[in-house]
Amino acid sequence: MLERAGTLADDAIDLAETALALGAMDRRAVGLSWYRDHLNHLVEAVGAITPDEGAADAAERLRAVIAGQYGYEGDTRTYEDLQNANLTRVIDRRKGLPVALGILYLHVGRAAGWSLAGLNFPGHFLIRLEMKGERAILDPFNGGQSCGPVELRRLLKAIVGVDAELEPEHYETVGNRDILLRLQNNIKTRHLRQGRPDHAIEILERMLLLAPNDPMLWREAGLIRAALGDNDEAIEALERVLALGAADNVLHETAVLVQQLKSRTS
To answer: At CA 247, angle to CA 224 and CA 200, rounded to 5?
Structure first.
């Protein structure tokens, strides 16, 4: 399924189904039918919106069902737990990372026919809901609460620093593929932070199935492979970077590294 998702146009990717498939890769004995049924229950609980309701009403309905009725919340106590980025475990535990919870909000809202998108907000995944000329920004990690400029500015300063200010780029939307990559990047980063590059490369291989033409992912895979001593695999990954293209400095550094690795294996 992941290979197929890597060939699809972004809006054709089934966000929740692909996230479940990614989660199942670490839980081979667990079937997905129960999780699909659960997602359907969430969709049914939200129901069809009435014509006179706007973005604020839709946002409240999402919050009331996902956070209120079903108890989904951000995991503030064990934030680094890898389970928080596995959608199947997020559903089991009713808690997770912002992006994992955001996938639930996006799936349920879109199934209701509403316009929702993830935002390019640094360090914290947010959802934008648009309806009848109105907009609402939701924070899935904090009970789906709506965020205005004051709350967003406070959040940005807490994450980036006191000198940070809201910029137009923070309101830009991200596609389904980038959301799934962001989900997996959380797992990869934790493996690297905990000194498990062999596990990190497994996650990168999944990410490359989703985004086979991303040169920076291939570069990272090549660097980790080289650090692990897997020279042939490292060379293959880095040569993909050269074939796909990247910034001049990246291409130069990559070409030098390829030559160094080849000299070791000759």
So the answer is: 20
Domain ranges of the chain: 2-174, 177-265
Please choose, from the candidates 207, 210, 191, the residue with its C-alpha nearest in 3D space to the C-alpha of residue 199. 191
Structure confidence by residue, pLDDT tens digits, 79-120: 999 999 999 999 999 999 999 999 999 999 999 999 999 998
Q: Are 129 and 135 in contact (CB under 8 A)?
A: yes
What is the distance between the alpha carbons of residues 238 and 255, in angstroms, rounded to a whole number? 8
Contact 85, 183 (CB under 8 A): yes
Q: List, for residues 132-190, the tens digit of each pLDDT value.
A: 889 999 999 999 999 999 999 999 999 999 999 999 999 999 999 999 999 999 999 99
> Hey, what are 189's tokens?
């980063």
Residue spans of beta strands (DSSP E) within the chain:
73-74, 95-96, 115-119, 127-131, 134-139, 145-146, 173-174
What CATH number does domain 2-174 carry, 3.30.70, 1.10.10, 1.20.1070, 3.10.620?
3.10.620
% of the chain exceeding 90 in pLDDT:
88
Q: What are phi and psi of 147, to 5 degrees?
A: -120, 120
Question: In this structure, which amino acid lies at residue 43?
Answer: V
Q: Which CATH superfamily is domain 177-265 in?
A: Tetratricopeptide repeat domain (1.25.40.10)
Would you state the structure tokens that stand for residue 169, as one six-digit string?
A: 């780029």
Distance CA 264, CA 266 (A): 6
What is the residue whose two structure tokens read 């946002």? 59
Structure tokens belonging to residue 123: 């360090």
CA-angle at 126, arms to 149 and 137, nearest 5°: 45
